UniProtKB/TrEMBL annotation:
InterPro entries reported in the protein's UniProt record: Aminotrans_V_dom, PyrdxlP-dep_Trfase, PyrdxlP-dep_Trfase_major, PyrdxlP-dep_Trfase_small
Tagged with keyword Transferase: yes
Keyword terms of this UniProt record: Aminotransferase, Pyridoxal phosphate, Transferase
A single GO molecular function term of this UniProt record: transaminase activity
Keyword field contains Transferase: yes
Native organism: Pseudomonas prosekii
Superkingdom of origin organism: Bacteria
Chain ranges of the Aminotransferase class V domain: 70-383
SUPFAM superfamilies on file: PLP-dependent transferases (SSF53383)
UniProt-recorded name of the protein: Class V aminotransferase
């Protein structure tokens, strides 16, 4: 058994690991998908940086942060991602970056087509629909077959690429926030390339819990945040543009603080959260020291498998992601099939079992309850979830 798989089920290790995080007493949080907790040491470092920047004000920022530290921080992030520093630009979150990529993609002509599916994030859907009015393109919207398989996902994109030869651009979500489905990005991107379709990848939930090599995914454009599974302070994200494709994204709304060949001009220019950025090196160090995405992902998958394997066959329960290891991660949604209102059931999970979850709607397959363990979630808490789902089903 590989080390990460063995460690994923070692409750003693994870109980000790959980001490690194301060956790408010209250409901058991199974909604860790919104954003991640910072470790205590990261919180302390962040506080130190807030105080430092507050004391030194623009002197520190203009003399050190802007000319040097910000570049070093970007270089460290790029190193972790295995990409060249000039292929990423820091943003405040994934949404800002994805919107900038979509609105500044300059290869669309009136009459071209762009593609989204039901599982995309609403901000991405909205931005792609916005292109219709502003670029004169037609927006093709598809619903994915449910339950999905690796082959059905590829077949549906293959079919769409053949059916819509004027398709030029598509959004793709690595891990959908609605059901937790993991898209076979590399295979879809290869297919898209064969048909001349560019991909803008929404990686918001992928980074830090899925192991992947960004350049090998085969997408030219991607947007990420660092505050979900990497463990950074809120307000950090970045865009990736493959260096040879930089010219296909315009500077953001006439942005002119940077030369045309500098990716930093592809995002809105504004005063960033400097103390948060200054904290990033420690965050990356901790992420890597604990084994990175491979270790985090293995633990989250173990917790997910624990509850899914116990309830998948129960009458009255539908688990929204398949068990193909290529198509799921720690986030997995489910639905009570004998109850029309999933919100009522999420409220019962909270009031009767002290389990905090969230309802996600918008997938063609209908509303569901998203269950997202975190790094401080214990196997005993997952067992309580199993009991709750079994009794409520
Ligand atoms: C799939 C997906 N895309 C994009 C976002 C937006 O990320 P951010 O909050 O960093 O803007 C989220 C946030 O939850 C998400 O789940």
């Amino acid at each position: 058994m590989p080390d990460n798989t063995r460690r994923a089920r070692d409750e003693d290790f994870w109980l000790t690991f959980a001490d690194r995080y301060a956790v408010q007493p209250g409901p058991i949080n199974l909604e860790n998908g919104y954003f991640g907790r910072m470790s205590r040491t990261v919180v302390e470092e962040y506080q130190r940086n807030i105080e430092l920047i507050n004391r030194s004000n623009s002197v520190q920022v203009r003399q050190r942060f802007e000319p040097q530290d910000s570049l070093d921080i970007r270089a460290q992030l790029a190193e972790m991602l295995g990409v060249r520093a000039h292929s990423i630009a820091l943003t405040r979150n994934a949404s800002d970056g994805l919107q900038a990529l979509i609105r500044n993609y300059n290869r669309l002509q009136p009459g071209d087509q762009v593609l989204i599916c039901d599982l995309e994030y609403d901000t991405v859907k909205g931005a792609m629909r916005w292109l219709a009015g502003h670029r004169g393109v037609e927006v093709i919207e598809i619903d994915h077959q449910h339950p999905a398989t690796f082959d059905s996902l590829l077949a549906s994109y293959r079919d769409i690429f053949v059916r819509y030869p004027r398709l030029k651009l598509m959004a793709l979500t690595h891990v959908t926030h609605r059901t937790g489905l993991v898209m076979p990005v590399q295979a879809i991107a290869a297919l898209a390339k064969e048909h001349g379709v560019d991909v803008i990848l929404d990686g918001a939930h992928a980074l830090g819990q899925l192991e992947f090599d960004l350049e090998s995914l085969g997408v030219a454009f991607a947007g990420y945040n660092l505050h979900k599974w990497i463990g950074a302070p809120l307000t950090l994200g970045f865009i990736y543009i493959a260096p040879q494709r930089l010219a296909d994204i315009d500077p953001d709304m006439g942005e002119m603080h940077f030369p045309l060949n500098d990716i930093r001009g592809r995002t809105p220019y504004s005063t960033p959260n400097i103390p948060a950025l200054m904290t990033l090196p420690l965050v990356l160090e901790e992420h890597q020291a604990m084994g990175g995405s491979a270790a985090k992902g293995a633990r989250l998958n173990y917790l997910r498998d624990r509850w899914v394997s116990a309830v998948r066959e129960l009458p009255g329960i539908e688990v929204m992601t398949p068990d193909d290891p290529r198509l799921y991660c720690g986030i997995t949604s489910m639905r009570f099939t004998n109850h029309a209102d999933q919100q009522v059931m999420a409220e019962r999970l909270l009031s009767e079992y002290n389990l905090f979850t969230v309802v996600r709607s918008g997938a063609a397959s209908g509303p569901c309850i998203r269950i997202t363990p975190g790094l401080t979630t214990t196997a005993a808490e997952i067992d309580l979830l199993i009991k709750a789902l079994t009794e409520l089903s």
